Structure formats: C-alpha cells, structure tokens
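Lab notebook, entry 482. We have the chain sequence and a SMILES string for zinc ion, and the next step in the workflow is to get a structural model of the bound complex before anyone spends time on docking refinements. Request logged below.

Task: model protein plus zinc ion, output structure tokens.
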Amino acid sequence: MDYEVVIGLEVHAQLLTRSKIFCGCSTRFGAPPNTQTCPVCLGMPGVLPVLNRSAVEFLMKTALACHCQIAPRCRFARKNYFYPDMPKNYQISQYDEPLAQGGYVEIPTPEGLKRVRLIRIHLEEDVGKSIHGENLDDPRASYVDFNRSGVPLMEIVSEPEISSPEEAKLYLQQLRAILQYLEVCDGNMEEGSFRCDANVSLRPRGARELGTKVEIKNLNSFRHVQRALEYEVRRQTRALDEGERLVQETRLWDANRSVTRSMRSKEFAHDYRYFPEPDLVPLRTTPAWIDQMRVTLPELPDARMQRFVREYGLPEYDASVLTSSKALADYYEACVALYREPKVVSNWMMVELLRALNRDGMEVEQARVTPTHLADLLKLIDAGTISGTLAKTVFEDMYSTGKSAAEIVQEKGLRQISDEGALLAAIEQILAAHPNEVRDYRGGRDKLFGFFVGQVMKATQGKANPQTVNKLLRETLAREGA
Ligand SMILES: [Zn+2]
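Result returned:
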C-alpha cells in the first residue's frame, strides 16, 4: 500500500526576555539550581502573577513575521495537571483565546517554496526541571530545579501539512531562523530553548481522513527530529501493512537505540480541565501597539533570501538554503566580502561545507573552517596553486583540523604541478607504457584521451594542472602521430 505521511509540529520556544513571564526573576541559563526563584515562580499560595510586557511583544513580533492575525483580545487559562516540577499543579497557558492565529511559514523544498500554515501561537510559562539519578550516594534521589519555572514560552502549532521527515526538518530550520533573526529566541535545541513535539500519522495516498496520530517527544536536535520521524513512518507503515491497529499515544525518541517507545496513551484537552486564569485580566492589543511592533522587525529570512537572489545573482534554491539560519547567511556574506564570486562561494558552502556539517550533525557556528579560510582556499584555486579536485581534499583537512588552506598545501606538498617540462616527462612515460592505447587512439578511438589524462593525474597524485595536461597531451599525441 502506498501511504501519505502527515506531520504536524508543535514548537516550544523560550523567549529571550531578561525576566520571567509572571515575576521579576532572571531567566539566565546555567545559574546554580534554585537561585533564580521567588514565591511567584515557586507557586506559593496567595501570590499573584504580573504579565511581562516584553514576552507579549516578542510573540507579537513572531506573529507578524509569520503573517498571523494578532487577536485584539486574548486570555490566559489554567492547564491542570500534577507533576513534581510544577508545584502549583497548574500551568498558566492559553487555551481557546490564543494571542495569535493563522499565518504560515514558507520552506524551501527542492521543488520550490512550500507554505506550511500555522494554527496558532500562544504564550505560556515553562515549568521547573527534574533531575534524576545524579546523586551517586542515593541513585534513587531526584531533584527539582525551579530556575526554569516561569520562563516565558511561545508555543507555535502548525497545521498537519508537512509531508516528510525532511520537510519537518526544513520547517523547523526555517522557523528557528525567523526567531533568531527576530532575536526573540536563541534557538538552542541542546539547551532546550527550542523544543519540538511531532504528530505523525499515515493515510492511504489520496484519502481525506487523517490516520491515527502518534505524538513523539524528546526531539532535541534537527537530526533527531528527522531520524525519529523516519523511524516512526517505517514503524507505522509496517503496522498498517500487517493490519495492526495503531493507538493514539505519546512516544519518546530514544536517540541511543534509534527507536521510539511508548510513553503513555495520548492525553486529550479535557484531561487538563482548562479554565480561564482568574488572576490575570484579559489582554488587549491595539492596532497602534501592533504597528509599533511592526516597525521594529529586522530583515527576515524571506527578505534576505530575495536580496541574495538580487544582489548576488544566486538561484532561489541556493539563496533559501543559505539564509535558512542567520549564522549561515552571515557566514556566506563574510566569505563573499573576501572573495567576490558569489556563486562559487555558494557552491562550496552548499556542497562541501553543508555536506560535512550534516554528516556530523553540526551547526555552522561550530565549523572550524572560517569564512576567511574558505575564501583563501578559493583564491588558491584561482591562482593555480591547487586544482579544483585537490581543493576538495584540502577542504576536508581544513574542516577537520581548523588549519588554513595554505598551511595544508605546504604541509602535504599538494602544490599543483604546472611546470611543462615535468608534465611532459610524465606524459611521455605514460604513452610509452601504453603503446596499444596510443595506437587505438590514433586509429580514431578519441575516448581514450580521457584515459591518458587519468593516467597522468594518477602518476602525479592528482597534482598536475589539468589544463596544462590537456594541452600537452594533445600536442604530443598529434605530433607523434603525424
Ligand atoms: Zn520568580
């Protein structure tokens, strides 16, 4: 059976406000446990929340960047459940009246831009963090750190319109890029400031009704999102093919074993007994306030992409990949400033750099090859010091060692041989060693020319200047054949 994959994503993004959403405590990451708390974020009885204006404005900016409608009036709601990292036993969130609805994010697929619509963006507070098994004297002991409790979160919910694990990754990258460009979230998945839950289901291709959906949690890198979804698509395909009934449930991605495993049956909205938060008045947004936010919007990934097409003459696809993260776009522009061949820089980044980063599951910020290193390598190719083919090997070395191209060429003796005398000697040896091929070539088998080039390159460990080899080979073969 041929199935269609249907994916919807829920992203929780921690907002980069200086203080928490309902109290004045600091949101700084990495402070000693429980040093950034007060009665409000510890959930003591009798305290009252006061809404952080910046948190609202960060969400408004995001909503504008994602083309959402900002509600003129919205409310907070209590989401009731019990967990030790949340002492009030409810989380202040938004339910039927979110701050923003609708909108979309455009993702660059190889077939062109695809629009993934959003359902809503709402504001809520984060909860504390449980730490299990870190006390070696008592491995059963658990701790709770409330520094994170009350940090403002934005929940961004997409329509189930994503049709492959690859698209899910692209969507997340694009969304994260928008938040980073806006400077409302640092997008750090490892530190948990950009978290994602995925809903995935399959249905027979062409069917309208959605299949049974499974929610996957604990996806803390783009690679995990993609691999977990790929695993889940395989698992559900197998189950459906074998006539098994899938259950609506929440599964956890186990990155060590590369499987998802069942965590609990899926909870429904009614399990949370939502009701309007009585301690907060409804929030009103005015057109003037929204306009005020609109003028603060920076150049966003879309606009930067258009500019890359216009200013550097890049194909749309290159431009969208290169602007998919602010860091990548900055890297590109830094490199082009040093080496004014925009398309060449783009090719090297898209093929060599991104391939290596993807292979290692790394971000461009972690790359040891700097824009200066890459520009210097490209200049060495232009100067004829190394061939384009060898440059790829040099790039790999730059990538793994962080050394400059010149250093590597020097150390490994990779300098290109353009000296005609040396190359001619190599050519004559090759021709002498292959009399049959030489005879056939002269008899009209033109294709053998490539064979001779290959042999010369091999004899010179790839260091021969290919243009010079071509020229000399042609001359030599023509001369001796005459
Ligand atoms: Zn506090």
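Notes for the group: The mean pLDDT is 92. Worth checking against the assay data. The longest strand covers residues 112-125.
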